[in-house]
């Protein structure tokens, strides 16, 4: 499901949501498109709106304003439900069920079900089918929940911090399973995470939220090519004016390190490095109010 | 078959790392014409990197004429980069192995040895500036710079 005619994995127009009628906006004026066939990192600080967005895409919540489409379908409709899987942080597993029972439940609840694939995901983790779900380690129960989510062969897989409680080995294994799924079936994946290094070399699209608004929705390579980490004397700060955007600036004594979105040639005497994805994400996440609204708007327009 | 090792912290995009490691295997002769590269799925299962990255690396190498994508069969090496003198059994390699052992015995660390080799290479190339370099060499030097 890739190519120019494929529907977008996610498309939001004027999307807004608040949990209480007079409460604050969890999401506001969100406007973005995530192409299909991508592995998207959904990042943002706590409370930025990541889980809310995923629950809207999974059809668990309804938009307050605007609209959200998953593969051109309305979230929560039967069409969307067969094509989209959402794995939330509170994994929907019954502790008294065995692993085999759980997979059978998946088979009963879904119109399409790939039993071999679901069992293989469980087997790759070395999990006995007779084990009770409630007695599994966090890594193993994540794997069972993932088998449930992937068994229905979704075209779009939404994961809310799937690896939050896993050790590094289990993280690597789950990530490899996700990447293999994408390689084999062209599955679009959107995954929220606070662990920036694990997004490196795995995600090729970034959706970055700040205070309920979209700050970045962009291809990872394009992001890396348009940004630069500069190190140099702090007194040449004045060379970093428009059209460049300073995302984050850190000075220590006479030296300064900045992350900029570079537009056109640079003035001044800077040591220039191409940032890693992690550098860019942590730069934006830590930027606070240093990115002025005007700059943020330009960022979105460039996406 | 080559096995790719992806360094996530290096900042070098994974597709560049795959191309470099393939080229190195071709230079060393551990990959030969007709050999099959691992499938994207195999690379991804072993390294947990983005499958689009693997496909991009393979496409880049196909455009460079190093490999060929045969539909339904896989990706195959079509051109060798091995030069006489670079394979396992060559005298040059044996001399370098011996030299490396002496450098190690003298207490040099990896970085010292690499610096020595690079310096000797630079000195040699600078004194033969008129000699033509392969385009690959030039690109690599620019990347290093």
TrEMBL record, chain A:
It holds the Pfam family ABC_tran. Signal peptide: none annotated. The keyword Transport applies. Keywords: ATP-binding, Nucleotide-binding, Transport. InterPro entries: AAA+_ATPase, ABC_transporter-like_ATP-bd, ABC_Transporter_VariousFunc, P-loop_NTPase. It comes from the Bacteria. GO terms for molecular function: ATP binding; ATP hydrolysis activity. Gene3D superfamilies: P-loop containing nucleotide triphosphate hydrolases. Residues 10-236 form the ABC transporter domain. This is ABC transporter ATP-binding protein.
């Amino acid at each position: 499901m890739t190519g120019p005619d494929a529907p977008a994995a996610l498309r939001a127009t004027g999307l807004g949501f608040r949990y209480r009628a007079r409460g604050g906006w969890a999401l506001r004026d969100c406007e973005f498109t995530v192409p299909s066939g991508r592995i998207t990192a959904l990042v943002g600080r706590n409370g930025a709106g990541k889980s809310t967005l995923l629950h809207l895409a999974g059809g668990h919540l309804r938009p307050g304003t605007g609209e959200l489409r998953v593969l051109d379908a309305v979230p929560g409709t039967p069409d969307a439900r067969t094509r989209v899987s959402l794995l939330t942080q509170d994994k929907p597993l019954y502790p008294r069920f065995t692993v085999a029972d759980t997979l059978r439940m998946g088979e009963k609840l879904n119109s399409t079900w790939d039993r071999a694939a679901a069992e293989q995901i469980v087997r790759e983790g070395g999990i006995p089918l007779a084990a009770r779900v409630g007695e599994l380690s966090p890594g193993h129960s994540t794997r069972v929940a993932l088998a449930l989510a992937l068994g229905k062969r979704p075209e779009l897989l939404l994961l809310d911090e799937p690896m939050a409680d896993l050790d590094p080995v289990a993280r690597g294994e789950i990530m490899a399973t996700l990447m293999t799924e994408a390689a084999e079936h062209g599955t679009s994946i959107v995954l929220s995470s606070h662990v920036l290094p694990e997004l490196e070399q795995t995600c090729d699209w970034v959706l970055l939220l700040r205070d309920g608004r979209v700050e970045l929705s962009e291809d990872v390579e394009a992001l890396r090519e348009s940004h630069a980490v500069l190190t140099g004397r702090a007194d040449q700060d004045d060379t970093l004016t428009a059209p460049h955007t300073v995302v984050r600036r850190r000075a220590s004594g006479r030296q300064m390190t900045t992350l900029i979105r570079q537009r056109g040639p640079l003035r001044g005497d800077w040591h220039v490095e191409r940032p890693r994805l992690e550098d860019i994400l942590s730069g934006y996440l830590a930027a606070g109010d240093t990115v002025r609204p005007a700059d943020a708007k330009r960022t979105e327009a460039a996406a | 078959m080559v096995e790719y090792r992806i360094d996530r912290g290096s900042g070098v995009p994974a597709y560049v790392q795959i191309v470099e490691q393939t080229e190195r295997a071709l230079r060393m002769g551990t990959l030969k014409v007709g050999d099959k590269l691992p499938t994207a799925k195999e690379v991804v299962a072993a390294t947990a990197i983005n499958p689009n990255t693997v496909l991009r690396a393979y496409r880049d190498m196909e455009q460079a004429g190093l490999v060929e994508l045969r539909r339904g069969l896989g990706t195959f090496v079509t051109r060798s980069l091995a030069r006489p003198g670079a394979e396992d059994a060559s005298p040059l390699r044996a001399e370098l192995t011996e030299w490396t052992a002496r450098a190690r015995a003298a207490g040099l660390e990896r970085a010292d040895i690499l610096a020595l080799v690079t310096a000797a290479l630079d000195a040699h190339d600078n004194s033969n500036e008129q000699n033509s370099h392969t385009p690959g060499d030039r690109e690599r030097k620019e990347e290093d710079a």
